[in-house]
Design goal:
By secondary structure, the chain is an all-alpha fold. It has one domain. The protein has five helices and no strands. The protein is elongated, with a radius of gyration of 17 Å. The termini are far apart.
Length: 145
Amino acid sequence: MKLPKELYNGVIIFIGIALYFVLMEVLHLSNQFFLRLFNIVFIYYGVNKTLKSNFVEGKTDFADNAISALLTALTGVLLSIMGLVAYIYSKGGDSYIQTLSESLLFVGSPSVMTYNISLLFEGIVSAVIVTFSLMLYWKKKYPSD
């Protein structure tokens, strides 16, 4: 059984982000908030891979490709958030979240779910931005009406 390319590339995004953050944790760089911004590179990679695959297959409908790209990005983001929830609970839950929230801009003491829901919204926004920016890049390769 062959997985849909959106799911496959979403899993690639998740694996890339997970390995990146584990590497940051091992190297004791997880408190450097600006390094967390580089996870968008993995989203760009996975979405671009989906769009490239669509183009090779001859799928040039702009709306269909936009939906495919957005599904890829959202799959990666949702899997990453689920992985983060599991990781936080494995490290101690709310007590571990306090160490994470010190390096981000959270006021007070967020719970695990508050922390992850806010990251989910941030991830959805980044997925939309990545999709739109890559669709603008790929638009020149599609035949115009």
